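User: quick one
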Amino acid sequence: MKGILGRKVGMTQLFDEQGNVVPVTVIQAGPCYVTQIKTKETDGYNAVQIGFEEVPERKLTRGELGHLKRANVPPLRHLQEIRLGDQEEPPWTLGQQIRADIFSEGERVDVIGRSKGRGFAGAVKRHGFRGGPKTHGQSDRWRAPGSRGAGTTPGHTFPGTKGPGRMGNKRVTVLNLEVVLVDPERNLLAVKGAVPGPRTGLVFIRSARKGPRKYKARG
Amino acid sequence: MTNALMNSLIPERNPNVPELEPGDTVRVHQRIREGRNERIQVFQGVVIAIRGGRTAGASYTVRRTGADGVGVERTFPLYSKTVEKVEVLRKAKVRRAKLYYLRERQGKAARLKERRVVKR
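Assistant: Done. Structure below.
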């Protein structure tokens, strides 16, 4: 398992060898540093912790600075742990710099980000409800959520019923995006398709965990 | 910074695709792959729209009148790799950026007045 932190730069399009247009999201990935290596013996499980984005020392607490000093890396704003299997060797050494070139073109990755916050959104936007009729004498019903359930029996709304509420600003994972472009010099990565969050949003990119969906043969 | 980064990813312009303007009559040479063969297909018509400005997704639309007076329009990405070259045959005097009004016109009404340009 390998991964890197980055910032979403924006979307654009590139051409593949056949001349087809490929929509891509450009990510400024790294440089990251390995800030800690956790082992089964000392921590109960295997993992590597990486950090991203250098900041002035005054931006961090003494505790954070001390933690980073052990790895002998510059002050970093974001830390991310990458869990490793029990038998898995850490892919990097402590303090090592990680660049975008840990991924290669054609590889599949998962991208994790925080989706754009939509505030308190109605049921039409949040859950794709259809809203009410727009004509036939209707008033104030065009984006209404409709019924929340039956009447006196059961006498309450069932937990989990879809309705209006806070939308977005949640952790979202997009699986199996293809890496279309790697620019090791500028630490740029372009993945096919969209990625959660606003431009400049923090994203975590890891090698695809599940792989492409396997379709069952139908009998 | 963001913009500079994004702009750096815009592909380099094919030197065989000159600056286009609406009203230009052009011949677009496109490579077409059919199975194992590759051939060049030429599409000749009038540029009726240019979209996308300086973005990577910029494109231009070419309209020609096909058999039986049927209008045929094709939109090519400006940075397409399959377009081998574009020849500008004629430039015309036009007063708007999008020549969509040509769609409603036929024959004589669809003519454009030629604009002579001094070759550089």
